[in-house]
Amino acid sequence: MEAISSAFGAANRQEHVVGNLLASLKNGSFSTESIEEPKHLLSNSLNELSRSVGQLLPLIQRLPPSNRFHWKAKVDSLQEKVDLHRSEFMRFLSSHHEAAVREQLFSRPEGGLVNRPPMSVEHRFAEEKQALNRFDEHIEIALGQATETLHEMRRQRYTLKGTRTVLLSVMGQLGLSNTVMRFVRRRNREDRLLVYAGMIITTLIIIGLLYLFRW
Q: TM spans, by residue (predicted)?
């Protein structure tokens, strides 16, 4: 019980940190130049939080059956918050990427690439950096979706393990019931034989007594 309480408390604190960082990003607390580091920090924090929540599931299986439902509800509630944070982060990355692409399109000269004046080295480096940042955003989105799918598969795995445990328990109870039924049938046959044998013996005794007192 102490292990899962400590792990859940740590995961809950991580969730508050992720929520505050996500709120800062959505509120525009960072400039365009300084937003990359918070994005990476939030992505890493979300992945670490998902791992922490995933590590709580095996701990629930070790609890007594009377405490599992309570902790399962708490972990499910925390997992819903994590999924909500990840969905909001994915929407933020998508909107930020669309805004960057739109800004780049509107910043092109009217003559297009043909009449475009020669760029300086600094300008080329800036454009390369923007392209790398956009590629990094695509990678972040793909990693987020893959991580979400992985944790969903992990939750389904533990759900299937719980179902398997229940089925094994039911099969054990059915096996015990079959054993009891076989014992009852055998005892019923033995009792029937005892009754018939008793009836025959009683009949013979009565016949013997009648024969003895009559003659």
A: 193-213
The pLDDT tens digits of the residues spanning 136-171 come to: 766 766 776 677 677 677 777 767 777 777 777 777
C-alpha to C-alpha distances, 92 to 31, 83, 88, 115, 133, nearest whole angstrom:
14, 14, 6, 35, 15
Residue 165 lies in a domain: yes
167 lies in the same domain as 76:
yes
Give the burial class of 79: count Cβ atoms within 10 A of its Cβ; 0-12 exposed, 13-18 middle, 19 or more buried: buried
Which structural domain, as residue segments, surrounds residue 71?
1-106+134-176
Q: Residue 120: helix, strand or coil by DSSP?
A: coil
CA 15 centroid distance within chain = 16
Element (H, E) at 13: helix 2-26
Cβ–Cβ < 8 Å for 50, 82: yes
**Number of domains making up the chain:** 2
Residue 63 maps to a domain:
yes
Instruction: List pLDDT tens digits, range 74-116.
Output: 888 888 888 888 888 877 877 776 666 666 656 555 444 444 5
Six-digit token pair at 67? 């405490």
121 belongs to a structural domain: no
Look up the pTM and report it.
0.52
The CA distance from 139 to 113, in Å, is: 28
Together in a domain, 101 and 190: no
